[in-house]
Structure formats: C-alpha cells, structure tokens
Amino acid sequence: RTTMKSLRFISAEAFVSNTEFARKSLSAVAHDLFPLLFKASYLLEQGEVIHDLVENWPLFDFNMGKLLGATLDYQEDLSHRTCSVCLESCLTGLRDYVLNQSSPYMKKLRVVDLTGIKDVEVQFCKCKKTMGRWARTQLLSKLCSELLVYLQQAQCNPGTFEISINVLIDLFVTERNYELVVQALLKKCSCPLKICCVAFRSDNLALQKFFYIIKLTDPSSLRKLEIVHNVHLEMEHLEMLFNSIHFPLLMSLTLPARTFNVQRFTATDEQMLANIGEKMGEITQLTELSMSFSILTGRIQKLLSPLKTPLKMLDVSNCSLNHADMAFLANSFHANHLEALDLSGHDIPELYPSTFFKLLSHCSLVLRSLTLEDCNIQDTHVNMLILGLSPCQKLEEFKFIGNPLSSQALKHLFTFLCELPMLKNVEFPVPRDCYPIGITYPIDDASLCRYDHQKYERVAEELNLILLQANREDVKASTPLFGSYDAAVQETNNELGAYLIKSFKETLEKFTTSFNKMS
Fold this sequence. Notes:
The chain is α/β, with parallel strands linked by helices. Helices cover 43% and strands 10% of the residues. The protein folds into 2 domains: 7-131, no CATH class; 197-502, Leucine-rich repeat, LRR (right-handed beta-alpha superhelix), CATH 3.80.10.10. It starts with 6 loop residues before the first helix and ends with a helix.
C-alpha cells in the first residue's frame, strides 16, 4: 500500500537525500520547513541530516509523535519506526544542540517529547536495527551524564548554562541500566537536558533500588507505572509505596505477579488490602489497572469499590476470581466504561456464565479489546459466545488462545467475527482436533507444541479464507502459542534469562546445602 506524498514532501525527500548538500544548506532553510525535512529524513533514514536538523532546531518544541505522525504532506505514520540510526541521530543531535555555540538560530527549544514513539514487532526501516524503550532510556541517561562532564571541563559560553530543555520520556529501568539512570536523575537540576519521566517501567530490579529510583522520577508527574516480572513487590510493599509517595496524575498501574495472595490472609492483611483500595481511590485519574497472577478470590470489591473514576482497562487474568467477584464487576460502575478486559485463566462457562455475559453486555458499547485465554470455552459454548459478542461493535481485538475448541467451532466463530466492523486482531487457539486424543486443558508447556502442524496449517488457511471471502483482509489472525509480542520483554530477554538462571542456581545451591546438612 503506497501513501500519497505532496509535492512539498517529494521536494523535501530530494533535498535531504543529498546528505552533503542538505547539511551545508540548512542555515538557509525557513524555520517552518524543519518539521517537513525531519519527517522526510526519518523516512529515508538520513542519520546525519536528522542530527543536524535537531542540532539546529529553531522551534520551541520537538514532539516526535507529532513530527512522525500523519501530516497533510505525507499521511503515513512513522512513529512506530524505532530505527536505531534515526533515534541515535536525534538524541546525539539534541546533545549537540546544547553544545553548538555557532548555530545561526536562536536557541528557543524548551520541550522535547519522546513519548510518542511506539515499539512494535515488525520494523520497516532498512537498517533493521531497532532502539527500544530500554535502549532509549540508556542512551539519553548516558548523554545527559556526558554533557554535564563536558560542561564542567570545557570553556563554554555562559549562555549554554542557561539552556533548559524538558525531555519527556517513558523510562524503562532494570538492574543493568539502573546506576546510569540514577546518576542522570540525581544531576537533573544542573543539566540543560532535564529528564521528565512520564511513564516508568521497572523489571529485574531489587525492591530497595525500585523505591529509591521511583522517588527520583518526580512521581507527581507520572502517568503510567509498570512494576513487572522480577520486582518482588508484595502487598505490604505496595501499601508502603502508596503511604510514602503520591501519584496525583497516575492513569495506569501494572503490578507484578503474586502481589496479592488472599490464601494466607490474616485480619491485618484484610485491613492492609482495604487501605490499598482507599489509596487507589485517592488517585483520581486512575483508569487502567493490571493485577494478573495474584490470588484475589472474593476481594475484588474491597480493592475496587473505593475507586472514584471508572476503569477503562482491567486485567485480572489468573486471579482466581469467584462468583462474588464477577457479580461485583458486572454490577459496578466500571462495567459501562471498560474498553479493555482480560479475564484469562478463569473457567467462565463453569463458574459464572450468566454473570460474565451480564458484564459483557454492560461494556459492549465501548469494549475494544477482550482477552479470554485458557477459559475452558468449548464447542458447546460458541453460540452463547457469539450472542454475547454481537453487541460489541467496537471490538478491535479478541484473544482466546488455549481454549479447547475444534476446527469446526473455530470456522463457525470466524464466520461471525467477520461481521464485527472494527475488528483488527484475532488470536485463536490450535484446534483441539490437532492435538492427540485425550489431551487435557490447560495444556502444559511440554505438550503445547505437540500437535499436528500440517493439519493446523490447513485449518489456519481455511480460517483466513473465511476472512478473505468476507473482504476482511484487514483482520490479522494468528496463534502466538507463548503469548503476544511484548516489545519490552523482547528487548531485555537476555538480561531476564540470565537473572532466571542465576535465581535457579542459587535455589539449587540452597537445596544442596540443606540436603548435605540433613545427611
């Protein structure tokens, strides 16, 4: 699919494609043409031109999302291109903007917004090398520290120290880049480039370090907080976090697995849970909450009823919810506002079919994403599911991996899915009849790939044909057996893998020591 370009954009491409000429001629370019030239350079991956454009940026703000988004001159949105060449050129250009004393332009730049960059699975840039959120965090922190060292050592123009640029970024911190980010945040006051954290993701980090760095990020400006995987945050730590830090603008909160476990609750724990609920109620902007893989049986009301703003996104996958929890969700004021809902890991047809469909009917007018993985949805439930999904005319994404459905039931379901006008993404299970007879659900990891691959390919082709015949080529259908693509996990999987091996080794050593003592 080709996107139309205006004559202005074609001219801009011609101008920037000659690197040497473009760099020499920048001083004669009108201010209002810089955004156009930037997008053209980004499309053509002209790193040196990008660097010089940013180094001489003549405007008050530099917003990556707007600069790369759809424009009248070129409709294509390039904000999902996390091209390493382009992004590194942007950030080094920003550093040199501060240092360049001979630029013909007055230094007006006050705000740089890097939050509009989207990390996606498929990259279209020629270099095929991406710079993800972790690497952007790393590079910006490194450049800020280097800039300070240089300013302290070199004879700089006094005006350089008056430059103050807020750089809005989504930080991603792990053990490996922790020290570098901490140094950059500690010296924020003295540095002309001031890191302003809009969203913060923490993974593979000791709890003590997490508590230290989160205070440095200026939590009063934080919109999104993700504490995931290898941060061992439990309920008492969460209460401590909310008691010691205020998050007035927080809109989205993700908590790691096993933050809550009601199976070992005491009266003190019940009070602690109530306190956490009240503290979350004080965060008036909170509309997205993810608490997957915690055990919350019978406690959803206690946790969510104090919230004053309706949730738009709720992930309670694998949280062992009971009928009372589902009844609360179905009847709560959140139900009419839920745009994204994940109830994976619950036996919906067996435990609370009618309550679930009541919840679905309440959110049907706004629901955009529904995830029902490993929910024991069988062939006999498909007609009921179709009935429940019919009013969900805004549904864009439906994920139902891990359900024991036959290829025949999937074809029936796909025929219906073609009728949902906004649908873009479907994640469907390997049909039950592709696995050996007697397979039990949920399927364990060892058996997950032991299916008839040729038969699966035939069924997948038939399902895609159903979409094709209904003129729904716009719908992407896939079976990601080990979960959907996660850019953050993909970028740091080597570090996380090393951490898991280390943890396993330590556990093994402890076991061996204990065993030897017993012997």
